[in-house]
Write a structure and sequence with these properties.
This protein has 91 residues and is an all-beta fold. Helix content is 0%, strand content 37%. The relative contact order is 0.36.
Length: 91
């Protein structure tokens, strides 16, 4: 329902920047039933997770001076968010 989500159902994060070390930070921390899981921002990797309250998440601070880039997209349920901009997928 709308209390669970703002219409976003699925989050996709695609990492674009090469990370020289696991200690550089910017990990995606996912909170799941078994605890927390840190995802390293590895180049050319895709992370998918539920976008509602089932998967609280945060991005940990950047521990280096390197710039980091990622692309985030959401699958939106238009029944829950009828005001969301909608564009048909090209065939």
């Amino acid at each position: 329902g709308s209390a669970d989500c703002n219409g976003r159902r699925l989050t996709a994060v695609y990492y674009l920047t090469d990370v020289p070390s696991d200690t550089c930070g910017c990990h995606l921390r996912l909170a799941v039933a078994r605890g927390t899981y840190d995802v390293s921002p590895s180049t050319d990797s895709l992370v998918l997770f539920w976008a509602d309250r089932r998967t609280p998440h945060e991005v940990l601070p950047n521990a280096s001076t390197l710039q980091r880039y990622a692309l985030s997209c959401w699958y939106v349920d238009l029944d829950e968010a009828p005001g969301a901009p909608a564009r048909p997928m090209p065939c």
